[in-house]
Amino acid sequence: MLSPAIRSTFIFMIIVILSFSLAAFPQSDTTGKTVPFSDSLKTNVNKVTPVTKQSKLTLGISPEIFIPEDRSLSKNYSVGYGFNLNGSYKLSEDIDISGAVGVIASGTEFEDIFGMGDNETNSYWVSASLGPKFYTNRGTTRIYFNINLLYSNVYYQNSRIAGYVITNSSDMLGFNLGFGIEIPVYKRLNAELYPSYNCLYPLCDEQTLHQSSFYKISAGVSYNL
Asked: 37: pLDDT confidence band, cut at 50, 70 and 90?
């Protein structure tokens, strides 16, 4: 199973991101004027900050939680943790093209073919996705949904356990469907939450994994270049 160090690192990253997200909620000064949280810490709350031109390119990083959904997957794979590096390019005010590469580590159990109990190892899901992002509103805080083409390659830490031979690796192709919210934190920095449903199909028959579906929850930050 996953080591306590991996789980602790993931939880720490989530706490840091949530701390940054507090800056997204506006505060009121003594005059009743709403100002960003970071500006409320300054003496001169009425100082006007020049508006900077936004770039079409945005890059980000997000820790992720992997949650198996179908029965066959949840039987052998535990909740996993990882992260992704993502980016988007603005095509119009309401449409982006977005992509991500990431890795998830999940504890994995297979039954001993000799009936001696379960055998544990770790699996690593290396994935890449690409697709359009559609925004549903305009303003500072934005909501979106998207659908991506998803490719994943699954590796195992130990490919031979108690006589059970694991196919290393498994190539999978499918789709990713989800929605998200972007919250401004400071100038060009945004906090982002993105839950999604993922479905993968094997690219060949002789693989350890077959059709698989799972949920992922991503929470991270992005920066507009």
From this structure: very low
Kind and range of the H or E element at 6?
A: helix 4-21
Report the percent of the chain where pLDDT is more than 70: 65
Q: What is the pLDDT of residue 29?
A: 46
The 3-state DSSP class for residue 16 equals helix
Domain that holds residue 156: 4-42+57-224
Query: For residue range 3-26, what is the model confidence (pLDDT) as tens digits?
Result: 555 555 555 555 545 454 444 444
Would you say 195 and 177 are in contact if contact means Cβ atoms under 8 Å apart? no
Domain count across the chain: 1
pTM: 0.71
* 150 domain residue, yes or no: yes
Sequence-ordered strand ranges (E) for the chain: 27-28, 34-35, 57-68, 80-90, 95-111, 118-135, 142-156, 160-161, 164-165, 170-186, 189-202, 212-224
Q: What is the Cα–Cα distance from 191 to 201, expressed in whole angstroms?
A: 32
For residue 148, list its beta bridge partners. 176
Residue 210 in any domain: the answer is yes
- CATH number of the domain within which 127 lies: 2.40.160.20
Name the one residue in this structure whose structure tokens are 């919210």.
181
